[in-house]
């Protein structure tokens, strides 16, 4: 994959021009020109999802760009996910870890890149995630996420405005001298999964393992057993917003 910075601050108009068309989704390239990120459009075929080769991928590793990923509309194709963990850390520390976009890159390993609109970067972000089922091509899943309700040290509610249809929340509760953190969210499946005969329960089972591992990483960070390096996050944001 590309070694570009994983967190970027973007002009608001550039971020939201994505929502005008699926064809504009792939994607922002970090460019030094005018100290801004350049929006690059990639035309999508009208025939629906088609596996493609990314030039940054190793030879033989196919992937499906987000331009080619469409989503089911029937509620029966909704996946529900939840993961929780007790952390020996103050609730304010746990809340801050979730409430700052860049921190998510340290423990949610499906998230590849986060792009921030410069005028509302605290509440809106464009995510690029990468998911692979078995030996099928990697899916690039994109969505603009909005924090629709934030109650300090209690809850962060979110929903997508474009891209993968999803909504959910993160809750924080003081418990046994520490904090219990619980993530719950739901989303519609990519149509491509149905073509591959991948069911809702299979995706939920796989995601349960992934999210459980992510929560353990979160716990290790907040309890001081795992150090994190913010250099890539802070330098990327600083350069892009300068």
**Helix and strand sequence:** EHEEEEHEEEEEEHHH
CATH superfamily: START domain
> How many strand elements?
11
What is the CATH topology? Alpha-D-Glucose-1,6-Bisphosphate, Chain A, domain 4
Structural Rg: 18 Å
Average pLDDT level: 77
| Silhouette | globular
State the helicity in percent bands.
Answer: 10-25%
Can you count the helices? 5
> From the coordinates shown, what is the CATH architecture?
2-Layer Sandwich
Overall SS class: alpha+beta
- Report how far apart the termini are: 26 Å
Query: Strand fraction band?
Result: 25-35%
Instruction: List the domain count as a whole number.
Output: 1
What are the low-pLDDT stretches, counting only 5+ consecutive residues below 50? 1-5, 10-60, 231-242
């Amino acid at each position: 994959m590309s070694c570009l910075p994983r967190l970027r601050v973007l002009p608001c108009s550039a971020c939201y021009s994505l929502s005008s068309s699926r064809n504009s989704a792939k994607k922002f390239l970090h460019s030094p020109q005018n100290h801004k990120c350049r929006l690059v459009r990639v035309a999508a075929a009208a025939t629906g999802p088609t596996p493609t080769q990314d030039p940054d991928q190793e030879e033989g590793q196919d992937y499906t760009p987000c331009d080619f990923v469409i989503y089911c509309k029937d509620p029966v194709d909704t996946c529900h996910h939840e993961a929780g963990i007790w952390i020996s850390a103050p609730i304010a520390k746990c809340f801050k870890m979730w409430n700052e976009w860049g921190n998510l890159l340290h423990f949610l390993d499906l998230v590849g890149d986060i792009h921030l609109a410069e005028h509302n970067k605290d509440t809106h972000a464009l995510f690029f995630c990468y998911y692979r089922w078995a030996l099928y091509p990697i899916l690039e899943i994109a969505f603009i996420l909005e924090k629709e309700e934030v109650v300090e040290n209690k809850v962060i509610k979110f929903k997508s405005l474009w891209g993968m249809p999803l909504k959910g929340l993160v809750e924080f509760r003081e418990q046994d001298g520490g904090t219990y953190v619980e993530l719950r969210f739901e989303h519609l499946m990519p149509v491509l999964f149905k073509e591959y005969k991948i069911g809702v329960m299979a995706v939920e089972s796989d995601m349960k393992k992934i999210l459980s591992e992510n929560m353990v990483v979160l716990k290790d960070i907040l309890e001081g057993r795992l150090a994190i390096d913010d250099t890539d996050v802070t330098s990327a944001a600083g350069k892009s917003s300068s």
